[in-house]
Write a structure and sequence with these properties.
The chain contains four helices and eight strands. The chain is of the alpha/beta class. It has an eight-stranded mixed β-sheet with strand order 1-2-8-7-3-6-5-4. The longest helix has 14 residues.
């Protein structure tokens, strides 16, 4: 579902020899890809950024037994970054996120079903090395 991002349209951060530069075109950005492409590394860099930027909240498989669902539903004006979405998001949460007009999402997983996304709203994480720095960007999946 194409809704323009309202928290931010770009995330940039740097961690040692890694640089993240993500252009966000929609309110829900779904990132998929094979194992070993850097998705979990990206999540950890964004977790570090969240310490400085209180608009960002991060959840992954470690939060499975916590009340992250209520936290998302009660929040306004946040950018939620969810790793391991296939574990964390049930059908009800996917539907809630798809129609949430109060927050923005970056969702990392393998299955975008239930988020009401078009094919051009699903991205793969791209990484390339430039002068000893690994740059993470988004590339449309299809």
């Amino acid at each position: 579902m194409k809704i323009k991002p309202f928290i931010t349209d770009r995330i940039q951060t740097k961690h040692t020899s890694f640089k993240v530069d993500l252009n966000l075109e929609n309110n829900v950005t779904f990132i998929n890809g094979e194992s070993g492409t850097g998705k979990s590394a990206l999540f950890s860099f964004l977790e570090e950024l969240a310490v400085e930027d209180k608009r960002i909240r991060c959840f992954n498989y470690l939060d499975y037994k916590k009340s992250y669902k209520n936290s998302i539903k009660r929040s306004k004006g946040k950018l939620f970054i969810i790793d391991n979405a296939d574990i964390l998001l049930d059908d009800n949460m996917r539907s809630f996120i798809a129609f949430d007009g109060n927050n923005q999402y970056i969702i990392i997983g393998r299955n975008p079903t239930g988020l009401h996304l078009n094919i051009d709203e699903v991205y793969e994480l791209q990484n390339q090395e430039i002068d000893g720095i690994t740059l993470f960007t988004l590339n449309k999946s299809f």
